[in-house]
Specification:
ProQ, globular, RNA-binding, about 240 residues, ProQ/FinO_sf, five-stranded antiparallel beta sheet, about 35% helix, 8 helices, single chain, alpha+beta, RNA chaperone ProQ, Fertility Inhibition Protein O, Chain: A, Domain 1, ProQ_C
């Protein structure tokens, strides 16, 4: 066989490389069927499973670390995964071996993320429906026959007794003022894999566990299992 023919029949690394999150997840299911799934009930993943994946697939050119982070973020933020993250359920490793149990705080956080995600989805559906209604042609108004038209009546005037009672209502108690919580930044010496920190996502800080530290970039895993890559200055003492 000629050298050129051998090159044509041998698949290249580029042809085997996953190109999107869907392909990465499908690949993880084939490599770790006891851990990942694409349908049915999902199993909560162990804290720090990203590092386990990076070590197992270190020589694998099919997926990169960036793709693994993106795939884990999508997988752990899905509704079926969040619904499986319940108190007392065991987290599993890449081989499907059960480990630590999910506590009440982790289960509560997962449920909060789930409800917020469903609320956002409902708002999007509502906005799309309103947009579709607005695009529909509106019926033209037709003049009513003359005999159906009525003269404009004077607005009904309230009695004096009614006017006396129509005073603006003043709230007796003002709304409680929220006290801002002061967050203390995490020092470089405290950035240790396995340590708990606070990461501010949105309006409130969330508890997370450090799974990887690379210079100023820190990868953490939330209680729900979601993996997030951030900067050191975005982390605070738990």
């Amino acid at each position: 066989m000629k050298k050129s023919e051998a090159l044509m029949t041998t698949p290249t690394e580029e042809s085997n490389k996953a190109t999107n999150v869907k392909e990465v997840l499908a690949y993880l299911v084939t490599q770790f069927p006891g851990c990942f799934s694409l349908a049915g009930e999902a199993k909560p993943l162990k804290i720090g499973i990203f590092q386990d994946l990076a070590n197992r697939l270190q020589q694998d050119t099919t997926v990169s670390k960036t793709q693994l982070r993106q795939a884990l973020r999508v997988y752990t933020s899905s509704w079926r995964y969040l619904e499986s993250t319940k108190e007392g359920v065991a987290r599993i490793d890449l081989d499907g071996v059960a480990g630590e149990l999910i506590d009440s705080a982790q289960a509560e956080h997962a449920n909060k993320v789930l409800q917020e995600s469903k609320a956002k989805a409902a708002e999007k559906r509502k906005a799309k429906l309103a947009e579709a209604q607005a695009r529909k042609p509106q019926p033209k108004d037709t003049d009513k026959p003359g005999y159906k038209k009525t003269a404009n009546k004077k607005p009904h005037q309230a009695s004096k007794s009614t006017k006396v009672n129509q005073k603006p209502v003043v709230a007796e108690h003002s709304a409680p003022v929220k006290v801002a919580v002061t967050l203390q930044p995490v020092a470089s010496a405290q950035l240790v894999v396995g340590s708990n920190v606070l990461i501010k996502l949105g309006q409130s800080p969330m508890l997370a566990t450090i799974v990887e530290v690379h210079k100023d970039d820190v990868t953490v895993q939330l209680a729900s299992g979601m993996v997030v890559k951030t900067r050191q200055d975005s982390l605070f003492i738990a």
